[in-house]
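ugh ok fine here u go
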Amino acid sequence: MIERYIYAVTRELPEKSRKDTAEELRVLINYRLEKVDKALPEEERIKKVLRDLGDPRRMADRFRGKEKYLIGPQYYYKYLFVLKVVVLSIIIGISVVSGLAVLFSTESFTEVISGYLVTLFSAVLQGVVWVTGIFVLLEYNDVSVEPGKEQEEWDPSKLPSLPKGKARISRVESVFSIVFTTLFLLLFFFLRDRIGIYYRSGGDYSFIPLLDVEEVSLFEFLIFFIFILNITVELIKLIKGRWTITVAGLTSILNIISATVSIYIIYYMEIWDSQFIERFEDFMPLSFERTLIFTVVIIIIVTLIEALASLYKGIRYSR
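structure:
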């Protein structure tokens, strides 16, 4: 039970300070145990000490030594972590795509650099605003993946069990998903007119766009909605850090909603440039529409597999 309490406290703190904090807590708890009536059973003595120390989250706040943020202590370090990942993804994504686009551009060097810097600044600014906004909403509403937990009086019996092995949610997996989602959003909002087929014809470079820019602009809100859903899924995983039925249920529902909206957008034929469709069908054995159907089927299968896998982990590791 002592280790469970230490885990509950340290998981709220930045990783670099967890080891030292854990040692301090062990010393403090052992010291207080010596003061408790030794006639009591050991489990009762431990419960009394932990009850006196209080809610692990409040204890974590004391170790931070800070009271209030726009993004509060509960989410602050996770906010910084996600913000760094998103900003780095934006910088890499804009740099790579802009660099590739320059190879086929007829603009002057000055125009290319100024366009790159303006796009990069705008993208980073929006990325910071989006991530901050999500965390502010979480903080303002005091969102928890375990409803009702904050309203109950804290007791040692409510301590989370120590996650073992596969019960832990991989941070690397969440980071990869955030990077992928951010890069996709960048392509859509800032570089969608540059996505397509570049080819050389008669000594000059030509370009066939993948998307009809005017038609696809109608889906900006839905694309942003998908981004919010996917980021929220990864935030839930990062905040909780382990599989539970609640985490599995929430992430499965959000993934299914995201996939449904994505399928609706993909199968709206008007967003695809007509010239691109013609060239695609000239070189491919399947029609473009059949290819879209095949893509939709893959999305459905992958989403269902992910949902079932999440639910399985949630049920298995909640025991």
